Amino acid sequence: MNTPHSSHETDDPFENADETLALSIVDALPEAAFVTDPLGQIEFCNERARTHFGAPPADILSILKQRTHPDDLAELLEGWQRAIDTDSPLDTEFRLLQPAGEIYRIQHLQFNPIKDRKGQVTRWLGMVTDIHDRQRLEAVRRFLTQLASLPQSFGRGSQTLTEAARLAVATIADWCIIYLTDANGAVRHIEAAHSEFVKYDWTGESGSPSSVEHDLPAGIFSVWHSGSPEIRSDVHDEDLRALAHNEEELRTLREAGVTSLMVWPLKAQGNVVGAVLLASSQRGHKYDSTDMEIAGALAEWIAAAIEAARLLHSKDDEIARHTLEQARLLEREQRFQAMADAAPVLLWMTDTNGDFRHFNNSWLEFRGRTLAQEEKSGWTQGVYPADLALWKQSFANHFKRRQPLRTEFRLRRSDGEYRWMLSSGRARYASDGAFLGYIGSCVDITAHKAAEEENAALLHQIQNAAQHEREFLRDVLASMTQGRVILCDTAADLPPRLVTCDGEIDLAPPTLRVLREHTERASLTAGLPQDRWEDFITAVGEAALNAVMHAGGGIAHIYARAGTVQVWVEDTGGGIAVEKLPRATLERGYTTAGSFGHGFWLMLEMADRIWLLTGPTGTTVVLEQYCAPPEPGWLQAKSNSVATFGPMQPGA
User: Fold this and answer.
1) Distance CA 129, CA 31 (A)
2) CB-hemisphere CA count at 13 Å for 612?
């Protein structure tokens, strides 16, 4: 990302005033932001990125490779390369190990191409946002929503516990084990779930006795004694020993990399009847107070299901069983409402007609209104007028088809400010499959929307700066070479091909000699003097050699007519560094890997006219030679009384 200069290099890669302005904008972004060249090499990052990664721009890519979670690394690198190869934006998430080397946090990467007015990618803008806390909040909302939508039947015994355990694994844990005490006081595994259960089946058969010493006053299973939950943010070997039945299981636990544990007691009628264990391993997550709240909600739900199942199974009378189940359903609804009111997200629920019947306390506090004012369609009075019709149509379509709902709209807060909300919901069903309505939530995404708008504005400014830079390069080259070098933006800027083609040659080291022979023959056919065609053969050879060395080959076409020879050299390599061309035109021997270097200086010395079109998908060089050298632009201007530095007519 160097600006053109004529006689010296500078350590500042953004010498141009427009680029300096663009980088000052990048530096002011609140997120970790960086700028790369067209091939993805990082050239600049803001102060937030240096702090976020703890490294200068040149080291950020290596930091990403070293600290990205192994399960996410391949997808991240493939997405990065695919974006560069296709000029397409990349929007992805990955887990990044923190500098202390203890936990992974979820990151959101946006990698967008910056294009000039002709559609050529000149740079890339990357932004990395730590969304770990936001994801955790979403996990709370999703867990409560899904837990409430489980089939409402406590009489299904272990099937209900299986669904609860699997839901916990899908949301907040890598392991979930439910323990119960039997009539003799022995602890038994009732249900277990794991993200890789086939690989780590260390829990034994369902119902087999456990060797847990649950009467001990200390340790991870002291919940039977204390009735209070236990949490181990950092798991030690003695905690694993308390879980394992034998040395083989202990070895499996160590290999699985369990990092954090929670055990919550299951209480029925004031007594501890079991426990639910949640463990984190490959997630790299350490449990905290937020996770304890989720675990508590799960434990209450499981305890209610177990208690209801026991009572139901003790009743032989169908009417008594039905009455008891209805009572438990009501209790469950009350438990859910209590959890929903405590949730830090806005929750809502509808009936089977689509009327909104319940909003939690967080919703009512956000809106500053009562439940009576909000229920049915009263809450839609707070939807931004321009968004209301789209929301109604989206909700009606999804509700009719019982499909998951996800949409955005603006909702008026109690202080009168409209906030952007991401609303999502899903259908609820009874155990017999009857439709019960929808349950969903709203999350404030105003800050995210503002960041998107800032990114769009920044991209526009940087694209303008890139376009100004390319236009400046084109003018500099035209001025320095008296119009003999034309930097093209598109294929339409290249000259028309001459009518008579003298051959097509696949470029490779053995065929360079063939190219020179064909060029000599075409030059003789066109009537060029010997000194002119010898110079031209040198220029063509340099162009072809660059294609072979830097792009692995290409194709050459040779055209001739009376008085003019034209050679096209085309490749599909990664392009050349056009910002270095002004220096290459002035300084003999100047060379940089990936650019024309002194070869371009020779082409300029030996050929009458050069057109150059280059980008990430390849380079085209067109060289022309005439019987006599064309007049320089300054002399034409003098003779025509018109200042012109643009392309001259072939053969002029």
Assistant:
1) 6
2) 26
Instruction: Tell me the C-alpha distance between 595 and 9, whole Å.
Output: 15
Token pair recorded at residue 415: 């202080």
Three-state SS string across 171-234, please? HCCCEEEEEEECCCCCEEEEEEEECCCCCCCCCCCCCCECCCCCCCCCCCCCHHHHCCCEEECC
CA distance 393 to 388: 9
- What is the rounded CA–CA span in Å between residue 526 and residue 517? 14
Residue type, 29: L
Burial 22-31 (b: 16+ CB within 10 A, else e): bbebbeebeb
51 within 8 A of 64, measured Cβ to Cβ: no
Q: How far apart are CA 441 and CA 423, in angstroms?
A: 6
Q: Measured in whole angstroms, how far is the alpha carbon of residue 71 from the centre of its chain?
A: 15
On the 0-12 / 13-18 / 19+ scale of CB atoms within 10 A, 237 is exposed
Map residue 141 onto helix, strand or coil: helix
Q: Is 630 helix (H, G, I), strand (E, B) or coil?
A: coil
> For residue 613, which phi and psi values (nearest 5 degrees)?
-125, 115
Partner residues linked to 418 by β-bridges: 412
Can you tell me whether residue 588 is helix, strand or coil? coil
The phi, psi pair for 40, rounded to 5°, reads 95, 10
Q: How far apart are CA 225 and CA 181, in angstroms?
A: 13
Dig out the tokens for 422 from the structure: 């991401």
Q: What does pLDDT average to over the chain?
A: 76
List CB contacts of 356: < 8 A, sequence separation 6 or more: 348, 349, 350, 374, 375, 376, 377, 379
Token pair in block for residue 604:
């300029």
Q: Do 618 and 571 form a contact (C-beta atoms < 8 A)? A: yes
How does pLDDT run across 531-565, given as a tens digit for each residue?
A: 999 999 999 998 998 888 888 899 999 999 899 99
* Cα–Cα dist 362/346, whole Å: 5
- Is 0.90 topped by the overall pTM? no
Q: For residues 190 and 306, give the distance between their C-alpha atoms in angstroms, rounded to a whole number.
A: 11
8 A C-beta contact, residue 129 and residue 279: no
Query: Cα–chain-centroid distance for residue 539?
Result: 45
**Which tokens sit at 366?**
């956000």
For the segment 255-312, what is each residue's pLDDT rounded down to a tens digit? 777 888 888 888 877 788 888 888 887 556 777 766 777 777 778 777 776 766 665 5
Comparing CA positions, the residue from 528, 530, 521 lying closest to residue 502 is 521
**How far lies 3's CA from each of 19, 33, 61, 308, in Å?**
9, 21, 24, 75
* Under 8 Å between Cβ of 514 and 507: no
The answer to whether the CB of 155 falls within 8 A of the CB of 325 is: yes
- What φ, ψ does residue 228 adopt, rounded to 5°? -115, 150
Q: What's the rounded Cα separation, in Å, for the pair 425 and 405?
A: 5
Q: 180 has which bridge partners?
A: 188, 274
Residue appearing with tokens 């070869």: 599
